[in-house]
Amino acid sequence: MSCIFCQILSGETPASLIYRDEQVTAFRDIHPIARTHILIIPNRHIASVNELEPGDEVLVGHMVLVAKELAAQAGVAEGGYRLMINTGVHGGQTVSHLHLHLIAGKLARFLLG
Ligand code: 5GP
Ligand code: ZN
Fold it and tell me: 50-92, pLDDT tens digit by residue?
């Protein structure tokens, strides 16, 4: 069975999609920890930051720029937001498909101190 985020990419598993282009897809986190909680993922399966390779710079940079655009779209750009990539078990990663969390709202202030 392919990973849950690959299933979202294929449409096999429903998600609240927000954005899609040739490289990345963004959708709402199913268990939001703040008012705005969006995940930006590569359209290609990459398990984690550990699996990134030379040549992926453009993709990772694009993920951040898409996060910036979605933050503006969500109206949180000025107030501020947190971008987070958890990696591996000790990094709190629970889904093995690279994803960038875009988190904004009251609770986001208390995450990770
Ligand atoms: P991690 O803990 O790996 O950094 O983050 C994984 C995130 O994916 C969690 O915040 C979790 O709520 C979210 N998530 C897990 N399964 C699904 C799903 O099926 N749909 C959506 N939209 N989010 C999911
Ligand atoms: Zn995947």
Answer: 999 999 999 999 999 999 999 999 999 999 999 999 999 999 9
Q: Is the pTM of this model over 0.85?
A: yes
Tell which residue, 35, 34, 48, has the closest CA to residue 96: 48
**Measured distance between the N- and C-terminal CA atoms of the chain, rounded to whole angstroms:** 36
Regarding the beta carbon of 15 and ligand 1, being less than 6 Å apart is answered yes
- Residues serving a catalytic function are 99
pLDDT of residue 25: 98
Q: Judge whether 38 and 28 are in contact, CB under 8 Å.
A: yes
Ligand 1 contact, 29 CB (< 6 A):
yes
Residue nearest to atom 12 of ligand 1 (CA): 31
The answer to whether residue 1 scores a pLDDT higher than 80 is no
CB atoms under 10 Å from CB of 91, counted, come to 12
